[in-house]
Amino acid sequence: MNAVDQEARIARLKSVAAELRKNTLTLIHKAGDGHPGPALSIADLVTALYFDEMRIDPKQPKWEDRDRFLLSKGHACTVLYAALAKLGFFPESLLPSFRSLGSILQGHPVMDKIPGVDMTTGTLGHGLSVGAGMAVAGRLGKKDYRVYVIVGDGEANEGIVWEGAQVAGNMRLANLTAFLDLNNFQSGGAINEVSGINRIPVADKFRAFGWNTLDIDGHDYKQILGAIAAAKNETAAPTMIVAHTIKGKGVPFMENNNVWHKGVPNAEQLAEAVKALEAA
Amino acid sequence: MNAEKTASTRQAASDAILELARADPKVVMVSADSVKAARATKFAETFPDRLFEVGIAEQTAVAFAAGLASCGYKPFVMTYANFITMRACEQVRNYAGYTHLGVKLVGLNGGLHGGEREGVTHQSVEDLAILRAIPGMEIVVPADAGQVGKATRAIVDRPGPGYIRVGSGREPVLCADDEPFVFDKLRVMRQNGRDATIFAVGPVLRNVLQAAEALNAEGVGVTVVDLHTLKPLDRDGILAQIAAAKVVITVEDHNVIGGLGSAVAEVMAEEACAKPLARLGLQETFGVSGEGNALLDAFGMSAENIAGAVKRLLGRVRP
């Protein structure tokens, strides 16, 4: 791809991400519930996967050759729902029904209720273990689909994350690519005050479990797209892309402010957020 | 008593899975370092690319199986029942239950009889209660090895999650080879129910059959029912088998809370079936290490205990 095309590609993705961020905050505002900070920190990763990389077909959500995506940090699902709606898996008009009785848009992702959701998640820690099962299924069936997982940094406190890391590393699942959303906060505060999960860098830990690892700026599309491409070139190991991100990214009053781990912007705050996102 | 014929329920499950795998390339196994315990060495040798070893990581075994099932495979996770239903309880609920995926679980060491000398940590006496609380989870406790093979074949193509409870590998043979297994329909093993109907599951049926024989010799008419499918429950079958009886007994190698006895009691209460009921099984206690049959005797599930319970209840209803 030449430089001009690459620039246009990235400009398009940035514009999509801004829209997903706006839609995320709008739906949280209307629904009166949600986790804005964790959703905003992964918005660029979700955008790169769903609007550039993944082989999907909104008309065939269960297409057996599709790439799979697991949002292991399921509480950030508002940005996934915004992406799936924009792609046409379900109408965008459903977004404000999030978390309300009768809506398909459950509080955390549910595979057989929400078109486009490949796996139910929400209880932390399961993306790598379930994703490993999907990856071996692909290998066994001689399918060339890939499996993508986004794991939270706080989530990596869970023991099963490391079971999954061990299994995927041992099985050399090169068709499995995960992102660790290193936004440096978990529910209770800064990760290194609450749990110390990154005192020894998580990338080092995954490397010790047999993974190919990369460290990137999780808001820089050149780096995100480059890391995804590098992971596809890896043939002997799963890849963990440690994405250094900002919790609440794109909305100045939410950035690095853990009050917004879970919270609902009021009308005034939403207007301010939208203004910031449109100006960027 | 003469040397009793035994056959391994573990081996029977593994043999059935191997046979199913030969016919269906979608049948796979997930091991939590449980190939040996599951008697699945032959499967591993025959289908090395369809045996996924995740190591001693039961939570991941179940989650991993859900991933396989979501891609169209029919995974069997076969390891200790306690570790499936307790260590991996959340994974069973959310990733096999809530997803409605066809994850098949085979729990070893069911009951005191199955866990026997290993002791409490390896004796599964709450598995049925835990799994009954999970919507859509199908639960089967076959009577013996022959029935295990048939039950395994019966559940493999059912769309949702399922559980089969097996034992240590030293289970009494209780059924003829040609005895059918019909999923979700109870099976009457002795029909003579003018006095008592006894519902039971698994190897403890041996003691129930002995009790029934002794009672019949004393002129007490007893019907013995193998209620092998605990979910979905054969409610009409239960009521039909109770109809003629004066008293009802349940016998389970399990905590009396939440398992077979609870299931029968719930049906009786909801259908206003006002007959005396005794639930034999573990009564607010943990087990201990010991030989399987000796444990059943020690914890109130011997043939004598069962016959005694019947007579006690009948004494209560006789004028």
Layout: helices, strands, pairs:
The complex is a heterodimer of chains A (280) and B (319).
Chain A: H1 3-31, H2 36-41, H3 43-53, E1 68-71, H4 77-87, H5 127-140, E2 147-152, H6 159-170, E3 176-182, E4 185-186, E5 189-190, H7 191-194, H8 202-208, E6 212-217, H9 221-233, E7 239-244, H10 267-279
Helix pairs in contact in A: 1-3, 1-4, 1-10, 3-4, 3-9, 5-6
Chain B: E1 6-7, H1 9-23, E2 27-31, H2 41-46, E3 51-53, H3 58-70, E4 74-80, H4 81-87, H5 89-97, E5 104-108, H6 111-115, H7 127-132, E6 138-140, H8 145-155, E7 162-165, E8 171-172, E9 187-190, E10 196-200, H9 205-217, E11 222-226, E12 229-231, H10 235-243, E13 247-255, H11 260-270, E14 277-282, H12 292-298, H13 303-317
Parallel strand pairs in B: 2-3, 2-4, 4-5, 5-7, 6-7, 10-11, 10-13, 13-14
Antiparallel strand pairs in B: 1-8, 6-12, 9-11
Helix pairs in contact in B: 1-8, 3-5, 9-13
